[in-house]
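Hello support,

Our group uses your service weekly, and this is the first time we've seen a run hang past the timeout. The protein is ATPase AAA-type core domain-containing protein. I'm not sure whether the cause is the sequence or the server load. Input pasted verbatim:
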Amino acid sequence: MIRDFWVRNFLSIDDRQQLSFVAKGPASELVVEVADHVFLYKLGILYGANASGKSNMLLAMNEIFRLMTRPKFKADKRISGYIPFALHRGDPTEMHVSFYAESIRYDYDVSFDSRHIIHETLNYYPKGAKSLFYERRFVADDVQADIKFGPSLKIQARTQERIRENTLNNHSVLAVCAKTAFKADVGPLNRLHRWVMACCHEVDGDGEKEKGIVEILKDAYADSKRRKFFYQMLQKADLNILEYRPVVEDRVIFPEMRRQIEQGDLPEKVKEALLSPTVDSVTFVNATAQGNFDIPIRWQSKGTLKYIRILNVLYDLVTGLHVYFLDELGEDLHYDLLFYYLSVFLYNSTQSQLVISSQETTLLSQELINENRGAVWFVEKRKESASSEYARGDSFGLHKNLSLYNSYRIGKLGSKPELGSIFIDLED
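Update from on-call engineer: The timeout came from a worker crash unrelated to the input. Re-ran successfully.
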């Protein structure tokens, strides 16, 4: 779980902006104790106008974990996560994340530009006290980075040198675990690398956007536990769906389309798939008092398909220990279904964490959210600088009896669009 995070000089974020998930105590189902007297919010919600920078914070949080774990195999490969604030191009991006992995706290700080990790430090608290995991500084192009390892890791000198030799200037020290096999003395590095890879996910899930709905449903169908979960969540969502099953349907390919595919500059495997006479699909069984009937996936509503896409995320959250970022959650979903989705997560997960952006302000009227204002941030883009600023919901000094929802709606908390006149002048 993430304890706190800050970033500077990234997309719309100019000065340092921070999200802290630290809670005062075990107030509700939103809070979990991850270590002795350490309480963190399981849910974080970002509100703000369109283009205010909500998504950019999610991307930044995602990027720091990618940077920690994804290696480069060529020294001239650009660091794709370097997307500086428009007025500070050339200056390094700086990020920090403090998080708990397998009950151990880690603090990671990194500074980087498009070509180099300039500086990174990873500390951890294996026995409650702060210890160095490793520290690394950029020296020069074509020169090995200066890397120092903490003595508590007990890494042999020969292994340390191998790590240095394989750490290119454009990726983190920890990312070496993904491209080089080491002996057992790098166990702490491998364990942390495996945890981040398994538990910290891409924005909107690992490829769920790229995966088709049919593929998502087929994968769930092949896993009996996940299939049972999908069935239950579809039934409880009042969609009239009882179950579903994968099917194979005939495909109609018109002669002109066939000719274009055959003559097109496409890989043979792609051509073969596009010209296949059949296609995988899914049929849903709908239940009524008069009897059950089948509905093909192409007739399902946009909201139903969106709900199916995020069920994979929910399954991971309630069955394991995961960190997910979902952008614009609530889009295409009825409000009651959205709050139900979040409630299932909160009441059935242990130490998973979900950070979302949303335009569904009605969530703020829920007692569960209003009483846990530290789990909400309001995002505003300053006109004079075009930079995003993030304010936690409990930083405004609102009396506990005042509604967070009403305060936001009337503009007390900012983060609302300032709209012009509804009248349009098209005269020259």
